[in-house]
Amino acid sequence: MTSSTRRAAALVSAALLLSGCGFRGAYSIDLPGGADVGDDPYSVQIQFADVLDLVPQSGVRVADVPVGKVTDVQLGDDWTAVVTVEVNRDVELPANAVAMIQQSSLLGEKYVELAAPGSEEPTGELGDGSLITLDRTNRNVEVEEVLGALSLVLNGGGLTQLQTITSELGQALEGRTDAVRNTLDQLDTFIGGLDVQREEINRALDSVNALAATLSAGTGTITTALDTIGPGLAVLEDQRGLLVSMLQSLGQLGDVGTRVINETGADTVANLQDLQPILSQLAAAGPNLAGSLDLLLTYPFPASSLTALQYRADQRTGGYALFTNMTADLNLDLRQLFCRYVVDQTTGALQLVDPEELTGGSCGQPGSPGNGQPTRQDGAAGTTSTTTAGPGFTLPTLPDLTALVPGAPATGGGSGLLGLPAIPGLTTGATP
């Protein structure tokens, strides 16, 4: 076999060996000083929005301790980077662990940092085939990004105006140190007061929030009200001339009223002073005025003498009338009554009679025969009886009055005046 044949056979053997082992060049060679993943590591896939310059064989750390390596970096279906890492089986992490691409130093290598979630309760356990989703991954800020932002500030930002701002601020504060210090003290007091009242401020903000929610719920009603108020404003616009005229007339009325008050002020004061004695007397007579109201509505009888007022049907007229019950004390002089009046037996009316004709001049004269004891004498012509009304006084005797009233029946047998029952103290039929 020639040397060329041996060389070709060696190249074919090497190509077959490399294709069978999946050789990927330098990425297939473990870096010196890498993490020990052990004989049975578990594989985890991690989704990143940007992997920067992360490459296979980069390290995987937990709490800055190497625990694994990156085995593959691929582009996912949703244009996200999918990084496959191998982690030592002895490393225990929760299923909701987070991942972040970090840099070991300013110009150092990139690596994947795994950690437990800081804002969540750890759950489950990270194992072979687990996936850390995009919402639980992040990356650090690149040095190039920091330098680019600094360049923007230095070149196109407001850094050139910083000197002007500083000089103007120095001129504004020059000679006003005490005033600025006093202002800062007042500002500190104000902020301290706000801090003390933060609960009230929070409550006020909550009330404003509730009011805003109520207004939001009543948006339809507010919209309707705003739509309805438009025609009303249009009506006011149409009546603006009349409103202006009314206000002008009201102003003129006010001017006239002011002038009248100014000119009649002295007379008004004098009239009030003249009324003072009258009002004083009315005030003094206040209790009597209140008592007189008891008689005002029920004159001539006081309201206290009326036991009841009834508005009911009047049987005599067929309508309605006001009826009342009344109590009254009557003081009558029967002597004068019987000495002046007699009853017509035909018509039943009272007739005025001359006392001299009726009594023969003895009406109302005190004194009577007898000793004050009742005396009765029966006779054919009539009956005579005399009764004393009391010690020292005797009622007058009356003659037979039947002759004075035509058609009246004759009295007798103990009958009284004009057929009335006998009344003690009266004498009929004869004179004493």
TrEMBL record:
<dbReference type="InterPro" id="IPR003399">
    <property type="entry name" value="Mce/MlaD"/>
</dbReference>
<dbReference type="GO" id="GO:0005576">
    <property type="term" value="C:extracellular region"/>
</dbReference>
<dbReference type="InterPro" id="IPR005693">
    <property type="entry name" value="Mce"/>
</dbReference>
<feature type="region of interest" description="Disordered">
    <location>
        <begin position="358"/>
        <end position="400"/>
    </location>
</feature>
<protein>
    <submittedName>
        <fullName>Phospholipid/cholesterol/gamma-HCH transport system substrate-binding protein</fullName>
    </submittedName>
</protein>
<dbReference type="InterPro" id="IPR024516">
    <property type="entry name" value="Mce_C"/>
</dbReference>
<feature type="domain" description="Mammalian cell entry C-terminal">
    <location>
        <begin position="125"/>
        <end position="291"/>
    </location>
</feature>
<feature type="domain" description="Mce/MlaD">
    <location>
        <begin position="41"/>
        <end position="115"/>
    </location>
</feature>
<dbReference type="InterPro" id="IPR052336">
    <property type="entry name" value="MlaD_Phospholipid_Transporter"/>
</dbReference>
<feature type="signal peptide">
    <location>
        <begin position="1"/>
        <end position="26"/>
    </location>
</feature>
<feature type="region of interest" description="Disordered">
    <location>
        <begin position="413"/>
        <end position="432"/>
    </location>
</feature>
<feature type="compositionally biased region" description="Low complexity">
    <location>
        <begin position="379"/>
        <end position="394"/>
    </location>
</feature>
<dbReference type="Pfam" id="PF02470">
    <property type="entry name" value="MlaD"/>
</dbReference>
<keyword id="KW-0732">Signal</keyword>
<dbReference type="Pfam" id="PF11887">
    <property type="entry name" value="Mce4_CUP1"/>
</dbReference>
<feature type="compositionally biased region" description="Gly residues">
    <location>
        <begin position="361"/>
        <end position="370"/>
    </location>
</feature>
